[in-house]
Amino acid sequence: MRALVVGSGFLGASIGARLRALDVDPVVASRHAPDTASARGLPWRELDVRDPAACRDVVEGVDALVVVHGPSDITWCERNPAETAAAHAGGAANLAAAADGRPVLLISTDNVFDGTRPSSGETDEVSPANAYGRAKLAAERTLLDTGAGLALRVSLVYGWEPDGIRPNFFTTCARALLDGGGVDVPDDHWNTPVLVDDVAAWTVALLLAGRTGLLHLGGPERLTRYAWARRIALAVGADPALVRSQPRAEGHYASRPVNACLHSTRAPGLPELAALAPLGVDGGALALTKIAANDVVEDR
């Protein structure tokens, strides 16, 4: 089996590595080849998803697709809605046409909901919170309409990402706290964080099982970024007092829904996921802290 992963950043590279570990032949594709993909030895092809001919060319010869391309900076997307729609909604249309019936798994987002519920399941009504959510919802609908698509909505993905252009929340906090600096994070923004390895494991299991439709993946704990950052501090051996509370509306998270949380009513019935229960934030931190500490020491 040969699988194309559209998006070669932090999550795309993790999915590609998981595919390879399970004897699937992966190739990642994106506009630029980032260090995260090349460092793992994944084959890469240049692709601008806004180009229909380029999509047809890169899909030729593959058996299935995973779509996890950007832009994903929600603040940037809010300021550039047309470019966001072109990449996500337009790109999905081009990939759907190029796939021509091949299985396509789209990594989508909790931002398709407005955050008025504490947590959202697969049957809850969508109401996108921002430009990113609107573009992702349009991409979902396009790929699901093919009859061969699965939209996997994931909550806040985290891991250790030292070479990322825009490192995720765990990496940002751990680095600042290990260096003795403080972090300002909202105490009124709720998430169900999920470890990147768990997202990759679910993605590959669902792709190989041929699942279609809609599915949610959130971590097992619902907590604020402030509470999470304090637990990251404890995990890396830093003073939790270095974590400072900041209202969501006053910082970088103003365009996010108050409740960016997901749960699933469908996942418990899928046998391929039975042994893939997502880790809680403390288990995830334990798995990442040694790696993070070693990298920070080496950087010094």
Q: Could you please describe the fold and organization of this structure?
A:
It is built from ten helices and 14 strands. By secondary structure, it is of the alpha/beta class. It has a domain at 2-162 and 194-220 and 261-278: NAD(P)-binding Rossmann-like Domain (Rossmann fold, 3-Layer(aba) Sandwich). The strands form four sheets. It has a seven-stranded parallel β-sheet with strand order 3-2-1-4-5-6-11, sandwiched between helices. A three-stranded mixed β-sheet has the order 12-9-14. Strands 7-10 form a two-stranded parallel ribbon. α3 crosses α5, α7 (169-178) packs across α10 and α9 (225-236) crosses α10. The termini are far apart.
Write the layout of secondary structure elements.
Elements: E1 2-6, H1 10-21, E2 25-30, H2 35-39, E3 44-46, H3 52-59, E4 64-67, H4 74-79, H5 81-99, E5 104-109, H6 131-144, E6 149-154, E7 157-158, H7 169-178, E8 183-186, E9 190-191, E10 194-195, H8 196-209, E11 213-217, E12 223-224, H9 225-236, E13 243-246, E14 259-260, H10 281-299
Parallel strand pairs: 1-2, 1-4, 2-3, 4-5, 5-6, 6-11, 7-10, 8-13, 9-14
Antiparallel strand pairs: 9-12
CATH architecture of the domain at 2-162 and 194-220 and 261-278: 3-Layer(aba) Sandwich
Using the CA coordinates, give the radius of gyration.
18 Å
Order of helices and strands: EHEHEHEHHEHEEHEEEHEEHEEH
By CATH's scheme, which homologous superfamily of the domain at 2-162 and 194-220 and 261-278 applies?
NAD(P)-binding Rossmann-like Domain
Percent of residues in helical segments?
25-40%
Number of strands: 14
Q: Major beta sheet, specifics?
A: 7 strands, parallel
